[in-house]
């Protein structure tokens, strides 16, 4: 994993908040896997989509 990706995962406030919210909704984390996501933006979109999906199922 490149240093830029690790730095973004550690320092990006939005990703930190999304990861926390994902954990709150699903009861488990969603780690970044180099082989699964092509970019940080794809990972960010995946988290947002899964959070939206979980919230829609709640109501």
What's the layout of helices and strands?
Elements: H1 3-11, H2 13-26, H3 40-58
Helix pairs in contact: 2-3
Rg estimate, integer Å: 12 Å
User: SSE order in H/E notation?
Assistant: HHH
Extended strand count: 0
> Strand portion, in percent?
under 5%
Q: How much helix is in the residues?
A: over 70%
Q: Low-confidence parts lasting 5 or more residues at pLDDT below 50?
A: none
Count of individual domains: 1
Distance between the termini: 38 Å
Main sheet characteristics: none
The overall pLDDT average reads 90
Number of helices: 3
Q: Structural class of the secondary elements?
A: mainly alpha
Approximate shape = elongated
Question: What does this protein structure show overall?
Answer:
The structure is a single chain. The protein is mostly helical and 59 residues long. The chain has one domain. The protein has three helices and no strands. It has helices spanning 3-11, 13-26, 40-58. α2 (13-26) runs parallel beside α3 (40-58). The longest helix has 19 residues, at 40-58. It is elongated. It starts with a helix and ends with a helix. The model has no long low-confidence stretch (mean pLDDT 90).
State the main characteristics.
mainly alpha
């Amino acid at each position: 994993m490149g240093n830029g990706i690790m730095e973004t995962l550690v320092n990006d406030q939005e990703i930190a908040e999304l990861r926390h919210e994902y954990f709150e909704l699903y009861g488990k984390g969603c780690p970044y896997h180099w082989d699964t996501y092509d970019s940080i933006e794809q990972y960010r979109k995946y988290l947002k989509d899964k959070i939206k999906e979980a919230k829609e199922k709640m109501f």
